Amino acid sequence: QVQLVESGGGLVQAGGSLRLSCTASGRAFNSYSMGWFRRAPGKGREFVAHITWTNNNTYYADSVKGRFTVSGDNAKHTVWLQMDSLKPEDTAVYYCHADTNGNGRLWGQGTQVTVSS
């Protein structure tokens, strides 16, 4: 069974930085992309960023472009999200996902990011 485990969330002041990490473990794990969504209090799930392994292309939500950077290592089944110039509106639970052949989209348990003003 595959598990996605996130780490790196926490409390930071506005303007600060955090780096999230997500690693997949389990037998025969094979993904073609990994990335991040988030859910802010009282809101729906929102796409943040993801990376595709075939060409290392990256995609970002407009709200985080220029502030967040997604990167990863397919061989290590790991994706990172470097978050700079954080704003209070970035406060959310951040969820890692992996898109796989055969098992569809898999999700991590989420990690809380809180940005104080």
How would you characterize this protein structure?
The protein is mainly β and 117 residues long. The protein contains no helices and 11 strands. The strands form 2 sheets. Strands 2, 4, 5, 6, 9, 10 and 11 form a 7-stranded mixed beta sheet that branches. A 4-stranded antiparallel beta sheet has the order 1-3-8-7, with no helix packed on it. It is globular. 31% of the residues are buried. The model has no long low-confidence stretch (mean pLDDT 95).
In short:
It contains no helices and 11 strands.
Write the layout of secondary structure elements.
Layout: E1 3-7, E2 10-13, E3 18-25, E4 31-39, E5 45-52, E6 57-60, E7 68-73, E8 78-83, E9 92-100, E10 104-107, E11 111-116
Parallel strand pairs: 2-11
Antiparallel strand pairs: 1-3, 3-8, 4-5, 4-9, 5-6, 7-8, 9-10, 9-11
Q: How far do the termini sit from each other?
A: 40 Å
The count of DSSP E runs of length 2 or more, i.e. the number of strands, is 11
Topology order in helix (H) and strand (E) letters: EEEEEEEEEEE
- Molecular shape: globular
Global Rg = 14 Å
Strand content range: over 45%
Mean pLDDT: 95
How helix-rich are the residues, as a percent range? under 10%
Biggest sheet record: 7 strands, mixed
- How many DSSP H or I helices? 0
Runs in which pLDDT lies below 50 for 5 or more consecutive residues are none
Structural class: mainly beta
Annotation keywords:
mainly beta; 117 residues; seven-stranded mixed β-sheet; 0% helix; four-stranded antiparallel β-sheet; single chain
